[in-house]
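Work through this:
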Amino acid sequence: MMTTAAASAGPSSSSVLEAFADELAIRNVLLRWCRAVDRLDCAGMRAVFHPDAVDRHGPFEGTVDELIAWISERHRSVAFSSHSISNIVVDFNGRDFNGSNLAVSESYVRTIQSYPADAGSSLAQLTGQPVSGSSAGFDMFSSARYVDRFERRDGPWLIARRTVVHDWKRVVPIPQDAPRPKPQWAIGRRDSRDPLFEELREIGLLP
């Protein structure tokens, strides 16, 4: 039996490009979350979620505003934070992605955070047990996954529901002689005075 060219051609180039653009947009949302949480940028954190989104973080579950308040309080004692995203897989709910408004992404997130010696209670929220025994503080290393439901509601793709899947954690004491960057170097900050924001202001992307 002969098939028509339209039936055998597969997805059109326009639908493939649309699918690529949608996945790229979702990846950008995931990366911008990492930037926002590591710089403690509350507006940036809020921007990746729909207003009615829910976050299931493990020790925390609640709304976007509640999540940001929880992070802002818990991270007061976190001197350094680095979230790195990888292994991003996005599944859309439409054949050939045509007209799709729902998607689920899974992404691996590796996190490094530094805590002072007196931040045991804050650290215990993520380890599930008290941490003590170092006068110089602690570094926490973790491997987890973000399982995110994305929705496009007459606008950009944003997170409607996030579940943080905890896979692995380690906490190690910081040595007294741990290396430190020199004061004259560009040193990362967890506020609007970070070198990143200085560059964004320089080119007019921030006030």
Q: What stands out?
A: The domain at 14-202 is CATH 3.10.450.50 (Nuclear Transport Factor 2; Chain: A,). Helices lie at 5-8, 13-38, 42-47, 64-74, 120-127, 195-202. The first strand starts at residue 49 and ends at 56.
